[in-house]
Amino acid sequence: MQDNHTYTIHIGGAKVVIATLPPTTECATLTVDGHVSISRAKLLKKVETDKFLTIITPNPAQTFALLAEEFEVVEAAGGVVVRDDGAMLMIRLRDRWDLPKGHIEAGESDSEAALREVREETGIVAELCDSEPLATTWHAYDTYGRWELKRTRWWRMRYAGGEPMAQAEEGITCVAWMTTAGDAAWRNQTYETIKMVVAALDDKTNRL
Asked: Nearest 5°: phi and psi at 94?
């Protein structure tokens, strides 16, 4: 049976897709055997010039797993909090609009970590809307010479109380409610991973 899973990894300003077929939009492509992964070194070299790369393989899950072995995998969780009027809670961090998130602590589930991070980073109390994550994103980055691959599971939440209060010690300078669709105020100053999460939120909302 063919593996039709697709994996997307963001590395700085580059996007790497691992799939069985190339996307319909123009991008650089690299074909590998289903049991052989592109090395981390080769991948990092490719994305220096190719900001949208698709790795075509008959077995994306296997290819992704082999590549992930060359990174230190980090587990994180985040929350997408929405009020009754449809506004979404965002934070301002490192001059970008972002969503509250953080590492999962020992003994926590990812949903518990997401609720805690929302409360700590924004002052807002939230409740889970679903029994499964809204989306999962992968982000690779260099931390003092150690390459990490962060998996963040994002949970859809509803506002339950509290007033926005930025966690200054984490470098957060602002907490604000934003509209999700077509709001250039945050879309032009955010990350591609956040756009993916909000797209998943919009899709979920439209199906309800």
From this structure: 55, 45
